[in-house]
Amino acid sequence: MFASATTTFIRKAIRSSTAAASCNAQQFRSISITPALLEKLNVQGLADKVNLEGQNVLMRVDLNVPLSKDDDVTVTDDTRLQAIAPTAKFLLEKGANVILCSHFGRPKGEIIETGKNGRLNPVVDPLKNILGVDVKKVDDCMGEEVEAAAKSLTKGEVLLLENTRFYKGETKNDATLAAGLGSLADYFVMDAFGTAHRAHSSTAGVTDYMKLSAAGFLLDKELKYLKGAVDKPNRPLCAIIGGAKVSTKLPVIESLLEKCDTILLGGGMIFTFYKALGYDIGKSMLEEEYVELAGKLMKMAEEKGVKLILPPDVILADKFAEDATTAIAKASEISGDWMGLDVGPETLEIFKEEIGKSNTIVFNGPMGVFEMKPFACGTITVAELMAEATDRGATTIVGGGDSVAAVNQAGLGDRVSHISTGGGASLELLEGKELPGVAALSEA
């Protein structure tokens, strides 16, 4: 299904400044959670139920920060550390002893001293600065030494455990590891949305050994926007779905057909849909095994009355390179050795119209190869349209690492309603799946 428009398009300059999304504990506390999400206990509810002063609280966080390639120990972006501060500071204000627990990279059960799969030592000093308190670090996440360190904590102290994935059982939801973590505290707070879709020892299994388990402010916020906005949106609801591989997005698109008024498609995956329409796609990306399913989704959208809009034009390149020769072509006129690497100007005018009349917009996946300047315009323009929609009062949600990177590249991180911290988790929520790390929490 194609939409059409004949209007002029002015390429906008890419703004390279990065917007750091910031929020304090009070901002998180002020977020209203939809009734459907009140079934699970959150950290505010935990504090209302229990006097946390002097109590050990195990807090699952995401400390997967980038490190300098030069020395493997310097944190180059502390965004994820800043994200855990509202919940950690809230617990400290309540007098709790906070025990931080996280994996770091993919060590696959091996103890690695440094680097992106190594020990969590590089985050200690940054956490001290962010939390404003001393952070003690142990070199394991369970066992007698760790239990002794946890028992010695006094009011308002912070203990950082070692990389949970040094144990192979972590990703298998091993009961021994879960019990070891559970022995350190009576209460658990889950605030690592990026791993909430995994049934791991430190995200789900550990709750079996806790008196109460609650969602942190960050997790609450993710649920409010990603689940609340899609399940009970202020309509019209528009989803902008992009990315390279159609295989990762087909389940999301199928689920959104039950919820959305409009779905706008972009990225490398559109060529699989073009193939389903019988178009020549030149050397563009194709997942042949999904052509038939793409065709079925287009038919399903038509039957449901959902506007599933494919780009009517694309930016072509003669090679996958920054210095490639480029051209604009109709989607039905691609041929030869040309490959599509971005959506075209006519497409962006259509997207502008659809986004402009939507009150809830979800953006997941880039429109093209935005890392290369000649093919960044589609993604950056969508980010700008999201910001404009936010300014007029729409709820705008950005999920997925590349989409978030593009919004920040455009300097618009502070002009959307919500930037999700979890790629896979956000996709599974949009698909309507239950997240193990949420399902395991206590009822409110």
Attribute tags:
444 residues, alpha/beta, 6-stranded parallel β-sheet, 15 helices, 32% helix, phosphoglycerate kinase activity, EC 2.7.2.3, Phosphoglycerate_kinase_sf
- List the total number of helices: 15
Note poorly predicted spans. 1-38
| Overall geometric form | elongated
Structural class: alpha/beta
Amino-to-carboxy terminus distance: 45 Å
If strands are numbered along the chain, what order do they take across the biggest sheet? Answer: 3-4-2-1-5-6
Provide the succession of SSEs: HHEHEHEHEHEEHEHEHHEEEEHEHEHEHH
Could you characterize what this model shows?
- With 444 residues, the protein is an alpha/beta fold.
- Helix content is 32%, strand content 14%.
- The chain has 15 helices and 15 strands.
- Strands 3-4-2-1-5-6 form a 6-stranded parallel beta sheet, with helices on both faces.
- Strand 14, helix 13 and strand 15 (418-419) form a beta-alpha-beta unit.
- Helix 12 (377-391) packs across helix 13.
Helix and strand topology:
Blueprint: H1 25-29, H2 43-49, E1 56-60, H3 79-93, E2 97-101, H4 124-131, E3 135-137, H5 144-151, E4 158-160, H6 175-182, E5 187-190, E6 212-215, H7 217-231, E7 237-241, H8 250-256, E8 262-265, H9 270-276, H10 291-304, E9 307-309, E10 313-317, E11 326-330, E12 339-343, H11 345-356, E13 360-364, H12 377-391, E14 395-399, H13 401-409, E15 418-419, H14 423-430, H15 436-439
Parallel strand pairs: 1-2, 1-5, 2-4, 3-4, 5-6, 7-8, 7-13, 8-9, 13-14, 14-15
Antiparallel strand pairs: 10-11, 10-12
Helix pairs in contact: 3-4, 9-10, 11-12, 12-13
